Amino acid sequence: MSDFDDLTERMRAFTRARDWEQFHDPKSLILALVGEVGELAELFQWLPADSAATLALEDPLRTRAAEELSDVLLYLVRLADVLEIDLPQAAVAKLASSEARFRPEHFHGTAPVKD
Ligand SMILES: [Mg+2]
User: Fold this and answer.
1) Which of 12, 13, 52, 93 fits a disulfide with 47 by CB distance 3.0 to 4.6 angstroms?
2) What are the residue boundaries of the structural domains of the chain, listed by start?
3) What is the pLDDT of residue 38?
4) Cα–Cα distances in angstroms (integers) from residue 78 to residues 27, 46, 99, 104, in the given order
5) Distance from the alpha carbon of residue 39 to the mean position of ligand 1, in angstroms
6) What does pTM read for this prediction?
7) Would you tell me the crossing angle of helices 61-82 and 3-17 to the nearest 10 degrees?
8) What is the 60 CA–ligand 1 centroid distance (Å)?
9) Does the pLDDT value for residue 108 go beyond 90?
């Protein structure tokens, strides 16, 4: 069993043990996911952009960022499970698409411009 499958199973068991499946419709899970992304963003909101990466290497920001990233991941895992999406497979397919779309010989050092 992969780490992703293990997380999916553990989140499913965590939810079932608390009878929270009734609350885990896609809309509610998406809002919870966005809320956790907001908590992550809040940690970095007023940090100077040029030093945020350095500050995130040390506590207390490192620990707090890990906690919020985990919240984001766990809701994402749960949402994919409820939607019956094989997220690792979908992510690999999406990355392959991006690799083909943004070929290094055309985009090296250049940010893609939205069409
Ligand atoms: Mg959180």
Assistant:
1) 52
2) 3-107
3) 98
4) 12, 30, 27, 34
5) 6
6) 0.91
7) 80
8) 15
9) yes
Cβ atoms < 10 Å from Cβ of 72? 19
Q: Which two tokens stand for residue 112?
A: 């893609």
Q: For the segment 28-52, what is each residue's pLDDT rounded down to a tens digit?
A: 999 999 999 999 999 999 999 999 9
How many Å lie between the centroid of ligand 1 and the Cα of residue 71? 5
What contacts 20, CB < 8 A, 6 or more positions away? none
Residues measured by CB to lie within 5 Å of ligand 1, the ion: 36, 39, 71
Cα of 113 from ligand 1 centre, angstroms:
32
Distance from Cα 44 to the centre of ligand 1, integer Å: 14
Distance 89 CA to ligand 1 centre (A): 26
pLDDT digits (tens, 9 = 90+) for 72-87: 999 999 999 999 999 9
